[in-house]
Amino acid sequence: MARHLITSAIPYINGIKHLGNLVGSQLQADLYARYLRGRGHEVMFICATDEHGTPAELAAAKAGKPVADYCAEMHDVQAAIAGGFRLSFDHFGRSSSPQNRALTQHFAKVLADQGLIREVTEKQMYSVTDGRFLPDRYIEGTCPNCGFESARGDQCDNCTKQLDPVDLINPRSVISGSTDLEMRETKHLFLRQSAMKDKLAAWIDSKTDWPVLSTSIAKKWLFDGEGLQDRGITRDLSWGVPAQFDGAPWQGMDGKVFYVWFDAPIEYIAGTQEWAEKTGGDWARWWRLDQGAGDVTYTQFMGKDNVPFHTLSFPSTILGSAEPWKLVDYIKSFNYLNYDGGQFSTSRGRGVFMDQALGILPSDYWRWWLLSHAPESADAEFTWENFQASVNKDLADVLGNLVSRVTKFCNSKFGTEVPAAVVMTERETALMAQFREGLAAYEKAMDEIHVRRAAEELRALWVLGNEYLQAAAPWSVVKTDEEAARGIIAFALHLIRLYAVLSRPFIPDAAQAIMASLDCEDWAWPEDLDAALTVLPAGHAFTVPENLFRKITDEEREDWAKRFAGRRE
Ligand SMILES: [Zn+2]
Questions:
Q1: How close is the Cα of 136 to the center of ligand 1, in Å?
Q2: DSSP output for 351-383
Q3: Ligand 1 centre and the CA of 142: distance in Å?
Q4: How far is the CA of 168 from the centre of ligand 1 (A)?
Q5: Where are the beta strands (DSSP E) in 335-449?
Q6: SS3 state of residue 106
Q7: Is the pTM of this model over 0.85?
Q8: Which end of the chain is more exposed for a tag (fewer CB within 10 A), N or C?
Q9: What distance in angstroms lies between residue 191's CA and the mean position of ligand 1's atoms?
Q10: DSSP for 465-491?
């Protein structure tokens, strides 16, 4: 048994996420966590909501709520939806927790002790009316490029040009609408990532087993242009971890908070501390090399846009602290999922959002499609045709149909008891040889976190069972040799149990339904396949399950395609 720490990039708090976000990292992290638990390993799987920063403040203002209340509510909403998709976090934390506040301030202090923080004075837009500095997103004005009147300080949403607030024509405060703005000096803390460049480069170079997507993005940031730059880690905001605190090695940072990208990854650790407080568990044995974390394997899951922060910024925090924190061992990153010929769009309501998805079909349907089409080596695209075909063929025709045929046939001929012990004829022996090979390929793909390949290997195992049943044809055999037919069905029932165990990481609800109908709670991974064929003794009672999966009709497909096409602008 090994110990595995798994984290998924933490979703931002403002609003419900779409399926592209779900398959950005959380779902694959869940698959891996479930697989490792299934193999008997000790797993700590942490995720959280990312709650600080300007977008949360703006979303709260729009909702007419205090930002802390807004975040608390949205955290509960996201936690409930994550539960609906069966994301099996050991803890789903909050980056606004007291634990994260203390830990973020601790890291800032020790980084300063190590000479890795410098103070920088720069000029920033100040609103006299609002009495505060305005982050870029708090400033709107006319785009100098296209004339759009509601361009933001950082970007024009109309022509997508990247902007600087001073570029805007007639800039105004988003908070009050005031145009009484002026440039004033303000002080910020910068993390001296440039001083960490050689250490980070050597560390990245040592990760020869990482996906190219992870290392290539890291190297681009390390070496392109002038190389890795120092990064501002504070902002003029009130919602966040205060940058001025007792014992801080600097003065004059009142009214400023740490930048959301500094505190968010620290929440992986703080989230584990939240878990420890809730359960009485020991967080340090997962994170502190001086307190037992030396034998932990730490895997991070994320979308490609998060790779720079996880390969450079967060490691700068960890390595720069010179304290014995656990550093990530493997970074699994993903490309983007697109939606039906375009992109998912939160603002335009284009694509399927997580709550809507659960409103029309159970989570297993989505889990199976999203995982078997994970945007692994390139961007992937969701289409309703593909979704319908995949659900109807893989889930309904292959796995669902096998379970249904075997249990119904047994019920009609022999009743709802396992009709015999397994008898190994040449056919079963040959099948098991193929199964053993396929299982090894499945395990290898899962061990290496090749998500799409793992789905293919699992499906291939399901197909083997179907082919076996078709060739063994117990419905014909029973007419001349009832004993042989009983043996075939006993063997097939054992295959079905194996499918429940092996499929559980992908489709946990269906796996549970199969095991419930078999009245079996033996979820042991088939390390010994021969032993796995003796789990259900002759005479063991079962019930015929409801259809595991239903088919998606053409009418539904067309209806949903229309419904989720997005609002016109
Ligand atoms: Zn523009």
A1: 15
A2: S-BHHHHHHHS-HHHHHHHHHHT---SS-EEE-
A3: 8
A4: 10
A5: 337-339, 380-382
A6: helix
A7: yes
A8: C
A9: 32
A10: HHHHHHHH-HHHHHHH-HHHHHHHHHH
